[in-house]
Amino acid sequence: MTFNLEQSSVPYASFWQRVIAALIDSVILSIINSLVNRIFNLATSATINLKEIILQGLIGLMIGWIYYSLQESSSKRATLGKRVMGLQVTDLNGRQISFWRSTARYFSTLLSALLLCVGYLMVLFNPKRQALHDLIAGTLVMRLSSRD
Asked: 15-39 and 50-72 are packed helices; what angle lies between their axes, rounded to 10 degrees?
């Protein structure tokens, strides 16, 4: 599905729709990361050293990257959380994004978070409701229906 982005009432996702979708995705990723850590016995040792903490962080980063990039660049154009909320990620013309654009979007979220989450709050003030990572990657988050 593509959108006519010249319309006056473009269905951009709201801040709260995006927050709820992100919370759903966070729960899913927490479960996946917990299972992976248990498989590698990283979370079961009595003492955790710096090397294990770094390894857990890198594994979590890679799982998140694959989770977001594969789903947002797929024909569904959305993670599980975004699907539940009736949202999808598109390029600036309403088209499906590539895996590499989705990868840029994912890693740009780190910058959005590092800036005291101001990058996320930009959704509240941007006319196209884009966060910093959307501006960097050239993406939009659109509503598929009239849910609010």
From this structure: 130
Instruction: Dump pLDDT digits (tens) for 12-31.
Output: 999 999 999 999 999 999 99
**Ramachandran quadrant class, 103 (left: phi over 0; alpha: psi -120 to 50; beta: rest):** alpha
The better pLDDT of the pair 148, 55 is held by: 55
Of 101, 120, 102, 123, the residue nearest 111 (C-alpha): 120
The 3-state secondary structure of 52-90 reads: HHHHHHHHHHHHHHHHHHHHHCCCCCCCHHHHHCCEEEE
pLDDT of residue 55: 86
Residue found under tokens 């989770």 = 67
> What's the angle, vertex CA 19, arms to CA 121 and CA 107, rounded to 5?
70
Please work out, in degrees rounded to the nearest 5, the angle formed at the alpha carbon of residue 108 by the alpha carbons of 81 and 119: 80
Question: Cα separation of 58 and 112, whole Å?
Answer: 19
